[in-house]
Write a structure and sequence with these properties.
The complex is a heterotetramer, with 2 copies of chain A (384 residues) and 2 copies of chain B (133 residues). Helix content of chain A is 39%, strand content 18%. With 384 residues, chain A is α/β, with parallel strands linked by helices. Chain A has a 9-stranded mixed β-sheet with strand order 3-2-4-7-1-8-11-10-9, sandwiched between helices. In chain A, strands 5-6 form a two-stranded antiparallel sheet. In chain A, helix 1 crosses helix 3 (61-68) and helix 4 crosses helix 15 (332-347). Classes of the chains: A alpha/beta (384), B mainly beta (133). Chains in contact: A-B, A-C, A-D, B-C, C-D. The structure holds zinc ion (2 copies).
């Protein structure tokens, strides 16, 4: 397998971009990433987007993005794995370079949720987290399922510290230029916010926003010739039953467990060597379950460790260093690419006021549905 | 969901009928090609028991578009008498009646009106079993 | 690059499968392919589907298919490139094996168009062949654009023989068990059929059907150990402007030209060595343009060569040997996988009454939109 | 198409206004980040000429759902006076008036009513230029 490197990143601010079409937002991120990498063309384009058919009435987004990035001719198509669509595109792009077929590929993730009304976005989420005629039929949406998981968790372990995850994310997002909610919130404010689906509170769930992010992946051969900073990347994925209550233990996300273990093995890295983690905290409880199922916290302990400061920028294992899904924002198909781009900024010393002290290895966990699929990406400083 | 998908899955939605793997016992609420747990290909049709215990529940306040007119509504995770866990809307309860652990039973109810076609879709919901005094 | 082999195929009949959900149809094809290959598990699943979000209100189809095939745990996600979605899944699966990461992958293409009304399927096609706010806004759908291309073609070259393409496809479909329309039609019947968008006639366009097809791809290493017949596979892809009238010459499909040339080069095969071609004849004119742009017919001559019998089962270059999109059927996301599966049957001597005389190399062209993207797959008998 | 997409692209749909690459002259009917032809980043806003020649046309008889109530309708490929080719619905013509090559001009018309929201969407259409006798 040819080694795969990230050679540049680009992204937009996450916001309600009323004035831009999805493809413009994605093109903006893509052009920035190409510039950042110092690359003028690529061998293929991998596009991640969850809901363009539903929210934009647009399929064939791959070909459209080849045109909008001025790269007509290059192979291009879309990957969809619900909220982890960007990671699915990354997975395909990774294999393309690893096979030796391509020297450079562009991976673009994007989503424009503001093209739908909030209840339409909720319908979109219903398509992503359950079977259309079962969970979909009865309206058991992502928040409902997450709330039920949260209840089970509380019964087994207590809920101490779980509502603290949004507090951490918002603390890290403060002043971050690309974050949707770049301000702090207190634990009290979280606990006082109304229920969205009890016990899940409004301030424990990510908001609705538009965003696009892009990466340039290159082969080790091209990496050697480029001037931009290069970081080696690995990615693994695994699936689980769609409905968590069909799983042996709903509180153990097998997809996370498997994909984290596989990517660590692939990269030859131990859990202790991981310096930072970007979590899929679309709801607080999933942030905690990612840490526990990934083996970065004992089961039932993530909330307590969070309260102790272990996941802060100066903690044992900094998490969501630019605000995570909760505060940086969660435009579904773009999210995984933001996560990887942020790790890239950290490892190349470009994280500004959020810079960690010389991290060498970072890991991003991206989920679809309630863990029906997980993709884990690992970035690592490694000489070409 | 499309009306076609509703029609195809009416045996489960109306009667909790599905397919049990004869090898490992896994229940499938859809007609499986292969067992999702053990990859066996032999199934028997079964009906799940219509009663069980409410493990946990929640209330949806900002629902998906299709369910706007029904909000707020409750979703429960139920363990049936044979151990199968299913999701269901909860119905026929008084405000303070829902508690984890209470006994619940299946009833047949209108679930929703499907989109533009205006077709009324029915299915199971669960309600608390009245304690006999 | 690790060599990639097709080791088994499976598919359903194309029909209106009222009694089956999309995922059941796809699981059926997948299980058949695994059996055909003599493989019980795979390292990853690649799912191709164009319109599941719109027609089934279902995203996250990858994870769902892992569950429905009894392969929970395995990485799985969906690829979308409009009508060529199956080919996009194949492209990703190919790179996965070629990289050495996976030994065996399952590629499943499926589409269930009968879940929508005909005018809803047309709306779905509008999403696939144009920009939502340009062609989509004015209702310039796939048939409209194809009809305009057809007019330009007729003006430049005349339309002789173009309406004969459906006749060839139906002739080959006669008696084919998996074909949606397994009967002959005459040229007169084609010419007498009403216009769908003049000059395009009803019998020059493919119908609406449901179907699923699957392939097992394996590495050369695993191919050596398996008993099932193995055929080496290559795939290339290219894009073009979404709207053909933005292209330099709308009658030259650059995406076809590039992807055919690249795949021939990759496989070390000349055009003259290709023994059969599966064309993307969703409309008659596109079948002809595939041949011309692919370099298998001089520009403007495909119709005349068709009339001469060159593309019949006993012709110089047999095309659409089981009926093509027109007569075998065209369930979007499944189509490319049917094409490849049919070539596999031909090369392994399993084509029954449609068997060609010892073909060694076959090529399938799969389009999205009106050639916005093309994927060309090449299968070749080659000892492992 | 969503109403939001309609609003964003009104300058083209109402006035044939777009962006021309200052380097290669390629026209973009959307605001480009980078030229789709030459990858330049400099553009000037232009309005396309409102008249041209009908290269080819067709009639849609089985339209997509959004256009059901407007069928049959005609779609034309038009070469404008500056050489730009665009697609347009055709309007205001008598049954035998459409022929390839005739001169056509842009007019402002109602195009459709958008789905559930019922918003009336307007845009350009082209019609035959009356020959002055
Ligand atoms: Zn079983
Ligand atoms: Zn230019």
């Amino acid at each position: 397998m040819v080694g795969v490197y990230v050679a540049g990143v680009g992204f937009t601010k996450i916001a309600e971009h009323w004035d831009k079409d999805l493809e413009q937002l994605m093109a903006e991120a893509a052009v920035k990433a190409l510039e950042d990498a110092g690359v003028s063309t690529v061998n293929a384009i991998y596009v991640g987007c969850a809901l363009s058919e539903y929210l934009q009435c647009q399929a064939n987004l791959g070909a459209l993005m080849a045109e909008c990035t001025g790269l007509v001719g290059v192979p291009a198509f879309r990957s969809e794995a619900a909220e982890a669509s960007g990671a699915a595109a990354l997975y395909s792009g990774f294999c393309d370079i690893a096979s030796g077929r391509s020297e450079a590929v562009l991976v673009i993730g994007g989503e424009k949720l503001s093209d739908g009304l909030p209840e339409e976005v909720s319908s979109g989420m219903l398509m992503m987290s359950g079977r259309s005629w079962y969970e979909g039929f009865m309206g058991a949406d992502f928040y409902a399922i997450s709330a039920l998981l949260y209840r089970l968790y509380s019964k087994r372990y207590g809920d101490e510290g779980i509502p603290f995850f949004p507090v951490i994310s918002h603390e890290h997002a403060e002043g971050v230029a690309h974050a949707q909610y770049p301000f702090k919130i207190t634990l009290d404010r979280v606990l006082e916010s109304p229920f969205i689906a009890e016990p899940l509170r409004m301030l424990e769930v990510s908001g609705i926003g538009d965003g696009a992010a892009a990466l340039v992946l290159v082969s080790e051969g091209l990496a050697r010739r480029l001037k931009s900073p290069k970081i080696k990347i690995f990615i693994s994925s695994a699936t689980d039953y769609m409905n968590p209550f069909d799983r042996e233990d709903p509180l153990r996300l097998q997809s996370v467990m498997l994909s984290v273990s596989k990517v660590l093995e692939q990269a030859g890295v131990s859990r202790g060597e991981v310096n930072m983690v970007e979590l899929h905290d679309s709801v607080s409880i999933l942030g905690a379950l990612c840490l526990e199922s990934g083996g970065f916290s004992p089961p039932g302990a993530a909330g307590k460790l969070a309260m102790k400061g272990e996941f802060g920028l100066n903690g044992r294992l900094p998490c969501n260093t630019f605000g995570g899904l909760k505060a940086r924002g969660h435009p579904f198909g773009a999210t995984a690419i933001y996560q990887v781009a942020e790790i890239y900024l950290q490892l190349t010393g470009r994280a500004g006021k959020n810079q960690l002290d010389k991290p060498r290895t970072g890991l991003a966990i991206s989920l679809s549905g309630v863990g029906a699929a997980a993709f884990t990406s690992l970035l690592k400083i490694e000489e070409v | 969901m499309r009306v076609t998908g509703y029609w195809r899955n009416i045996s489960f939605l109306y009667r909790l009928a599905g397919w049990k793997c004869t090898h490992c016992g896994a229940f499938h609420h859809y007609k499986p090609v292969i067992c999702r747990r053990c990859r066996s290909r032999e199934f028997t049709q079964v009906e799940l028991p219509g009663s069980g215990r409410l493990i946990a529940y929640t209330v949806i306040r900002s629902p998906p578009k299709e369910f706007e007119r029904y909000a707020p509504y409750s979703i429960g995770l139920i363990e049936l008498e044979d151990g199968t866990k299913i999701l269901s809307q909860l119905t026929d309860f008084k405000e303070d009646e829902l508690r984890d652990g209470i006994r619940v039973e299946a009833v047949f109810r209108k679930v929703r009106v499907n989109g533009e076609q205006g077709i009324i879709e029915y299915g199971y919901k669960f309600r608390p079993v009245l304690s006999r005094s």
